[in-house]
């Protein structure tokens, strides 16, 4: 797991700055909170926050149901357009239809930034910057990256839309630590990040990762790694996640193929929010997606994540995702393989499962889609976990709990839920497209 607070002193300073910036709207207690942040395991600190519903993050929304409802509308709009046959290109997948219907998308690459839906819909990545063409797949120097390498591109301070000159296989010696306002856009080429360190998104905003094959990520660390032109620092061991999101927001991870890493395929922790994970193809992995690292870290109540149009495929075991504290909209995904369970959680997360296709495995003891990591039913009965319009196959069952959907939302989603019959079509191109 990706925590173990691997922060150098310099990172800690950065962290203080970030926190002070984040909570400057409530300036009266900002200094006090910033000072307390490092004592995460201090129960006084945790208790003080846990009774506190005032937790805010400037990039989290007050009404997550409204964003879920907006996702439903965009899906319905796309599936309607498809039925009406307006354009022969439409698939019913609103993200893909947004850019793939443009035959000249290669000339308009940055338009992709306007195609996201859900909580990560405002992630603009490097939309407002220039292009950076990665030409060099080798020569990874974690401290002094060479121009032309992916590492040199992602650490820059300015917004960049990063593309690749040709097909590439990149093996990183240390984590690829991204700076804010970057898009990695591998459309049209075949780019693998594999057999070494993988991607770290830490204390930044506005990242789009599209079209990569990320696999066989290994633990690395105990080394210096550069995170910006002006800063490098000591990294302790990294667990070997494909994509690790730490204290970051406005993140969109779309159309990647992810498999077989030492730790998670995607981990989002430590107050990360405004995230969309869409159109990815996950295979051959045990603990697939972790959203929220610990039950006691109540700041993850601000976590809001949309998980849409992904294919959870062969060789997966559990955590698709495993959630804590926040609000998770899981919509129109295709679950074709799990060995233990699909969706799990603890610490009272809200799970809004809608229009997914859940195909249970043969094992009669693994038919339940859901898993609560909380033995006391009296406690989890209050958690809001709902299933609307999911297609449950081969004996799959979803154990719901808590409140039903609010009225206005239920009306909208009952219409959109029909699209579970289209999940096969909507996810048929999941993963990297080349
Ligand atoms: C925990 O935090 C409280 C309040 O800030 C402080 O007084 C106390 O010494 C801390 N305890 C530990 C073990 O860090
Ligand atoms: C859905 O379509 C309607 C009518 O064309 C449009 O007004 C609305 O903005 C669309 N909503 C979304 C979320 O795409």
Automatic annotation (TrEMBL):
Keywords, ordered alphabetically: Calcium, Lyase, Metal-binding, Signal
Transit peptide found in the keyword field: no
Cofactor: Ca(2+)
SUPFAM superfamilies: Pectin lyase-like (SSF51126)
Reaction equations catalysed: Eliminative cleavage of (1->4)-alpha-D-galacturonan to give oligosaccharides with 4-deoxy-alpha-D-galact-4-enuronosyl groups at their non-reducing ends
InterPro entries associated with the record: AmbAllergen (IPR018082), Pec_lyase (IPR002022), Pectin_lyas_fold (IPR012334), Pectin_lyase_fold/virulence (IPR011050), PEL (IPR045032)
GO molecular function: metal ion binding; pectate lyase activity
First-level EC class: lyase
Pfam families, per database record: Pectate_lyase_4
Enzyme Commission no: 4.2.2.2
Extent of the signal sequence: 1-27
Pathway: Glycan metabolism; pectin degradation; 2-dehydro-3-deoxy-D-gluconate from pectin: step 2/5
Note describing how the cofactor binds: Binds 1 Ca(2+) ion. Required for its activity.
Record-annotated Pectate lyase domain positions: 167-364
Gene3D superfamilies to which the protein is assigned, alphabetical: Single-stranded right-handed beta-helix, Pectin lyase-like
Family named by the database record: Belongs to the polysaccharide lyase 1 family.
PANTHER family: PECTATE LYASE 18-RELATED, PECTATE LYASE 20-RELATED
Protein name stated in the entry: Pectate lyase
Natural source organism: Solanum pinnatisectum (tansyleaf nightshade)
